[in-house]
Amino acid sequence: MKCRFCQTPLEHEFIDLGNAPPSNAFLTEEQLNMPETFFPLKLFVCHKCFLVQIDEYKASEEIFDNDYVYFSSFSSTWLAHARNYADMITKRLGLNADSHVVEVASNDGYLLQYFVEKQIPCLGVEPTEGTAAAAREKGVPVLCEFFGESLARDLKDQGKQADLLLGNNVLAHVPDINDFVEGLRIALKDSGTITMEFPHLMQLVAQNQFDTIYHEHFSYLSFYTVREIFKAHGLVLYDVEELPTHGGSLRIYAGHEGAGHSISENVEKLLAREEAEGMRTLKYYTRLPKAAENIKLDLLEFLVQAKKQGKKVAAYGAAAKGNTLLNFCGVKSDLIAFAADASPYKQGKFLPASHIPVAAPSFIREEKPDYLIVLPWNLAAEIMEQEKGIQAWGGRFVLPIPQVKVV
Q: Are residues 158 and 295 located together in one domain of the fold?
């Protein structure tokens, strides 16, 4: 196997989480007695460019099919983040009715709806028909296709290049990162700006966020590596912001080389911090397996003790990261009674491999669990405020990452 970016042979393992089904492959009741397909969940790091990447990967067409159940608009925190971004970037770039905004992986229109409100022409590119249909209901025009060099050339030929070309949490999801970034270059106007948000690998390692590893994520990215990838395609990163979203993310700003963008001091500062952390040495990429094993043992010990004491444990959030955690730990429905989730697209289904049933949040009040494990820990504040009523019967929250903690 070779590095997806630089084609260097991959020899160095980052972490091996065993075999697991795709994290968003939810099951119907009829499917519970049918075989499930498992894929390796092993990551390697390239010793040349330090791109962390999955070993064997499930075809993207299988992952992002019409049964894909992740809809962005069910998190109020994420919607607020999207609105704030739209306000900020409109002002920063001076976007108006003569501009064109293109979002790659636009999901259910969670973000572009705010450009529609501002009467700024926009276009979403989204491979899943269910989420694309939801976006169209918000007045967002959508192309239901995968983004890459071929589609970018079509957009350019149609005069639909972007003044602002953006993508949130998509850069890590593309199997061919060179084709994707070359597509960004082609689809961007000469004076345009690209912004991309993605989880920062430095935070994944520092905060033991191994549960953010799943088949839909092909790459795990440092700022240094992303800069190298974009540079190879004639794009310069001229600014970067650190964000609290998804446990610690980066928002990069990129444009064509030679377009006159002034380079922010944030760029060199973050590169220096990553280097000081050792992110350009292979030793840095050996830390995570031990931390993951410790969390596994601690979570299993907590669940077994709760079972022995006759306590009822439930989870909140049928999130992909939660499925990685539960499957790595070998947790089944005998230890966690159910998972509550606000998305009606997940309710009534079962988590892959663990077969834990997914219910509406109202089920928490009916069942009154003693403990509620917050699986999407990046939304812990929102969820704990929303479900603070569990305190009425003595219920407590459990946060599994970066260490198992009862609060």
A: no
Q: Is residue 262 part of a domain?
A: yes
Domain that holds residue 179: 72-285
Pairing of strands 101-104, 371-374: unpaired
Q: What is the pLDDT of residues 264-297, one digit of tens each?
A: 999 999 999 999 999 999 999 999 999 999 999 9
Given this model, what pLDDT does residue 268 score? 98
The angle at the Cα of 298, spanning 292 to 303, to the nearest 5 degrees, equals 125
Tell me: do 338 and 247 sit in the same domain: no
The reported pLDDT for the residue numbered 80 is 93
> pTM of the entire structure?
0.89
Q: What digits encode the pLDDT tens for the residues 227-248? A: 999 999 999 999 999 999 888 9
